[in-house]
Amino acid sequence: MTARASTTPISAVNPAAASAEAAAQAPALRRHLPRHTGLLTGGLLFALIALAALAAPLLGLADPYAGDLAARQLPPIWEDGGTWAHLFGTDHLGRDLLTRLVYGARISLLVGVTVALVAGTIGTVLGVLAGYFGGWVDTAINFLITTRLAMPLVLVALAVVNVFGPSLKIVVGVLGLLLWDRFAVVARSATQQVRSLEYVQAARAVGCGPMHIVFREILPNISGPLLVVATLEMAHAILLEAALSFLGLGVPAPLPAWGLMIAEGKDMMFFSSYLIAVPGAALFVLVLAINLLGDGLRDVTAARGRN
User: b vs e for 204-222, b when ≥16 Cβ sit within 10 Å of the residue's Cβ?
Assistant: First the structure.
């Protein structure tokens, strides 16, 4: 036991050594970061969308709920008849599409971030418990994961939202309670790989309890894969919210949700295609930015960079 512990990195049980090790890895991170096009592109797009959403009341935009029937279905600026007063045109009630697009980003980001936090917390806790303790705990949690995977996600979401009615809180709650399985699977697998490593054995040998080992030794070393899962599930939640809103079972009108905007414009898609093209393009760009950002963060923070 003594020989085994002596080969353990001091950083596993020494915070000062851990800080020194992190500082030694920082130059490698700074070298990879400027050269990662995907990360920079995704981060820039996501930052612009998030900044516009947060600063929406300060941008001097029109009221997203105020309509003007005399100015309804005005084309965007790149089509004949478009005006600078309505860069992206207006909808069937004369509401400015650019304004509703910016305020709609708030809803999409709120849904994505909240669902990722709720699902990530549930899945990570279950996965780490299963991977660390094993035995009957692993068996029970595996049963929960299998049960969740056997449930059709969209049908369950549709059924629950149909029972309780369309509401932003209901959508966030339902998606948060349904999207934890991938977190659990990844956390369980990563924990099983980490728990037998020498620095965990060394922490256990010096008397550290399970809580210390889980929060100080295991979670920091499995955060990379979980970060990728979080970005994937964030994008997944945004798409599911848009799909539910499109079907009339998500965010209720008149909130400027992008899925609802697409649904409102589908009847005019052959005559005023911009009504679905504009919110559809915004949804595409946001999901693409999140995926690029997550994949880039995984690349630059991995112990060994991927090609």
Answer: beeebeeeebbebbbbebb
